[in-house]
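In response to reviewer comment 3 from the previous cycle, which asked for concrete evidence that the modeling workflow produces usable outputs, we include below a single protein chain processed end to end. The sequence was submitted unchanged, and the resulting structure tokens are shown without manual editing.
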Amino acid sequence: MTRTEGFTLIEMLVALAVTSLLMVAGSTLLVQTLRSGNMVEQRTELVRDLDAAHSLLRDDLANATLRRTRAPNGLDTARAFSGGFSTLEPLMAFTRAGWPNPAGMEPRGDLQRVEYFFRDGLLVRRAWLRPDPVYTTPYSDRVLARGVTDLDIRFLNQDTWTLDWSGPVDLLPQLVELTLVYGEGDELRQVFLVGGAG
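The workflow returned the following structure tokens.
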């Protein structure tokens, strides 16, 4: 009787078990890698959006001017700057200078009314086409931050922080502090210089 070369049934079962374990471990590692990659991509996009929002806020507030303007409703007192939660809307409103007009292509100046709103977890910037808008004046909205669960704002004037800016009509705050809170409890606090100080 000659003996044939090959694997026994037990050897085959052990090899299949080891192969199955390796495949399960490999697929688990692959799924975790894909999840981590998606989380990194989401965080990177959030950081990129926050960086763009910070740059736009810094630029707007640094170029705030003392030019008084009215809200589009035409009823409110003309002010150089208004802000806070005591005013129903917007969160901040002011006129900024330095609105680029390359080669003077558009028939307009460099002043622009800018408003910031906080609605439904979104921080939105509204830029009006003219510094003295009415209801029919065109504007452009841009979402600066999404998924914000809470927002705090305060203004510095002469070493005193206030939650609302409704003081003198011809005065700008020295600083604006904006705190954004996200769903996981992450908090982002930013302080901006106002009116050419930045």
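Helices lie at 9-62. We consider this sufficient to address the reviewer's concern, and the full set will be provided in the supplementary archive.
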